[in-house]
Design a protein that fits this description.
By secondary structure, this protein is of the alpha/beta class. The protein has helices at 30-41, 50-56, 58-61, 63-67, 70-81, 107-116, 126-134; strands at residues 4-11, 15-17, 43-49, 83-87, 99-102, 120-124, 140-146, 154-155, 165-172, 178-184. The protein has a single domain, classed as Dihydrofolate Reductase, subunit A. It has seven helices and ten strands.
């Protein structure tokens, strides 16, 4: 069975975006960018809410991005190769290949995808991830802790939820970013 993995860039005070909706402070170094690409490469399906999808779709819709450097081309090709499911009640059309649009997040459908998949599944975006956390679907959190305090904004993790985590791995980058990989305690060791 595939694992559902929540991946997020997170400020030291717990946010994915600042009060103005900006996340320019999350720009990775080349070292951490390659590390992220290698994680994403292990997944074959990505689940996104509308806002995260609109942020990520540039990896297919803007060819200039991939042309900037070999690591950016590698990420663009990796992202484009994955199947994507976008959950949105307001989005009417999609702009990328290998993408399906769903109006509602259905935990049972995600359980079926996990059971049928041979590869892990990425979930991106804190609002969609909060629904998956509350439904008991998240198996791992892979967090890139950015050494900055932004003082408020969009929380990376859901509130009013208690969930024990087990640290599986950590990695420190030269630019001060720390990668933390946790398994939810409800997930059995494999």
């Amino acid at each position: 069975m595939a694992k559902l993995i929540y991946i997020a860039n997170i400020s030291l005070d717990g946010y994915t975006e600042d009060k103005d909706g900006k996340f320019d402070w999350t720009d990775p170094s080349e070292e951490s960018f390659q590390f992220i690409t290698n994680i994403v490469r292990t997944t074959r399906t990505h689940l996104y809410g509308r806002r995260m999808y609109e942020t990520m779709m540039v990896w297919e819709t803007d060819p200039n991005l991939a042309a900037e450097s070999p690591p950016m081309r590698d990420f663009a090709e990796t992202w484009q190769a994955a199947n994507k499911i976008v959950y949105s009640r307001t989005l009417k059309t999609i702009s990328t290949r290998k993408t399906q649009l769903e109006q509602n997040f259905d935990p049972q459908a995600i359980r079926q995808i996990k059971a049928a998949s041979e590869h892990d599944i990425l979930i991106g975006g804190p609002e969609l991830a909060a629904q998956a956390f509350r439904a008991g679907l998240i198996d791992e959190c892979q967090l890139f802790l950015i050494p900055i305090l932004v003082g408020g904004g969009k929380p990376a993790l859901p509130d009013n939820l208690r969930l024990e985590l087990e640290l599986l791995a950590e990695h420190r980058f030269r630019n001060g970013i720390v990668f933390l990989r946790y398994r939810t305690k409800s997930e059995r060791a494999t």
